[in-house]
Design brief:
The protein is mainly alpha-helical. The protein has 4 helices and 3 strands, in the order E-H-H-E-E-H-H.
Length: 96
Amino acid sequence: MTTTHEPLGIAEARSQLGTLVARAVHGHQPTTIRRSTTERAVLISEADYQELLRARRELEAGQVREAIAAHARGDREMATYDSEEALYADLGLPTP
């Protein structure tokens, strides 16, 4: 999955939305859409999005397995957390 086009402004993306969706779905070509210099989003196919979610879950599961293994080796103490956010932060993961 590679982006070959410059980011599009919202108005331009809106006028080309059908083409951009087709390109994402059939060609697996993402499109970056900018609202401002700091606000950007990427249009991708649902299949590509599901693949990214799967990869994220695998990465997170691997990090949790490593934390459990580290505890079993005595390299990490068992911790309790007051919130899901605290757990994710301790594992260095983004909060879902």
